[in-house]
Amino acid sequence: MTREEVKGVLVNLQRDKRLTASLMYGSGLRLMECLGLRVQDLDFGRNEILVRDGKGAKDRVTMLPEFPRTPLPGASAQGESNPRAGPGRRMGACPDAHRLGPQIPERPRRVALAVGFPQEKRWNNPQTKERGRHHIDESLVQKAVRHAVVKAGLTKRGTCHTFRHSFATHLFEGGYDIRAVQELLGHSDVKTTMVYTHVLNRGPAGVRSPVDGL
């Protein structure tokens, strides 16, 4: 997609679906990488996103665009609590919150490990009585993007993964080095990244997210 086509699709998405698509285009994330983000994976101070267990079971760091500069929905949805409930009844409890260790207070630990794009429906653990949320189903985002592509009047096929392709292509158009794009995409072989070099590669430069120019 061109930049104008990306913009046309984004304006036809609502709330968390628009935020998800903006991150896929602005950071080069795959759909499940985006939905798998936890609150702690976004570093606003360093403008970085830590992608955990991406394709090939690899971790990588990619850019956090200046837009959108809002916390993930899960920062509030998973962090909420029921003041009448006892320990273990926190409404935003995260299934693996214990991984941060007991030395970290309960609420910050749970908020940090909360999924970024939570479902409305909570899960329940009958043994511990804990409740929390998993991330939204990917099919909901895929359906929303398909409808947004139609509303934007695009004649070409556009999917969630098209945002990642557009991310790489627009970085090359901006003159960014192939090695920098390879690292951001998480490709182990530069030959995989070279598929995007049908556009002019003008050499290295400081990488700025293409979504910030919309």
Largest sheet: 3 strands, antiparallel
- As a percent range, the share of strand residues is 5-15%
Query: Which topology of the largest domain does CATH recognise?
Result: hpI Integrase, Chain A
Judging from the principal axes of the Cα atoms, what is the shape? Answer: globular
Helix proportion: 25-40%
Total DSSP helices: 9
Mean pLDDT: 75
Please provide a written account of the structure:
The chain is mainly alpha-helical and 214 residues long. It has nine helices and five strands, in the order H-H-H-E-E-E-H-H-E-E-H-H-H-H. It has helices at residues 3-10, 15-27, 31-35, 74-77, 106-112, 138-151, 160-173, 178-185, 190-193; strands at 42-43, 48-51, 60-63, 123-124, 131-132. The strands form two sheets. Strands 1-2-3 form a three-stranded antiparallel sheet. A two-stranded antiparallel sheet has the order 4-5. A hairpin with a 4-residue loop joins strand 1 and strand 2. Helix 2 (15-27) crosses helix 7 (160-173). The longest helix is centred in the C-terminal third of the chain and has 14 residues, at 138-151. 36% of the residues are buried.
Task: Pick out its properties.
hpI Integrase, Chain A, 3-stranded antiparallel sheet, 214 residues, two-stranded antiparallel sheet, mainly alpha, 9 helices, globular, single chain
